[in-house]
Amino acid sequence: MTALVQDLSVIVDGVAGSPLVDDDPLIRAVIISLFTWRRANPDDQVDGGRQGWWGDAASGVNGDRIGSRLWLLGREKMLPETFSRAAEYARESLQWLIDDQVASVVEVSAERYGMAGLALVVRVTRAGKTTELRFADVWQRLNNL
């Protein structure tokens, strides 16, 4: 997680700060939600199995799943549809923040990072306070999985 945190910038209510992951459970929860592999859906095109975290099979809540399907994009070309799917997969992985009333608003965008990269920007609003997390070079991380 150290390399990931080096590429993370955090802005709380418009003020930039250092990513104190150990001190902020929200940041840890977002990182786990985005960068843990969620099991592929039956209609996802995958090579060699559905992947995903085994603990989802033992969840006490029907349909409760941890992680994201961002890993499915690891071999994709950088097209507008890929950026749209990255944002969709990230929103899907963070939906539990709304469902469990941890946050009132979760916004996600995917954007180009440099010439050949993808960045994710996540804005989470809870108790009237907005935390923005920018994950740089997500594309490189997906391709190194």
Could you please describe the fold and organization of this structure?
This protein has a five-stranded antiparallel beta sheet with strand order 2-1-5-4-3. Mean pLDDT is 80; it is low at 1-6. It is of the alpha+beta class and 145 residues long. A hairpin with a 2-residue loop joins strand 1 and strand 2 (15-17). The chain is built from four helices and five strands; from the N terminus they run αββααβββα. It has one domain.
N- to C-terminal separation? Answer: 13 Å
> Strand-residue fraction?
15-25%
* Total number of helices: 4
Please state the average pLDDT score. Answer: 80
Shape verdict: globular
For this structure, the quaternary state is: single chain
- Structural class computed from helices and strand pairing: alpha+beta
Radius of gyration: 15 Å
Order of helices and strands: HEEHHEEEH
Spans where pLDDT lies below 50 across 5 or more residues = 1-6
Count of the domains = 1
Give helix % range. 25-40%
Q: How would you describe this structure in keywords?
A:
145 residues, alpha+beta, 5-stranded antiparallel sheet, 29% helix
Task: Please sum up the structure shown.
The chain has 145 residues and is α+β, with helices and mostly antiparallel strands. 29% of the residues lie in helices and 23% in strands. It has a five-stranded antiparallel sheet.
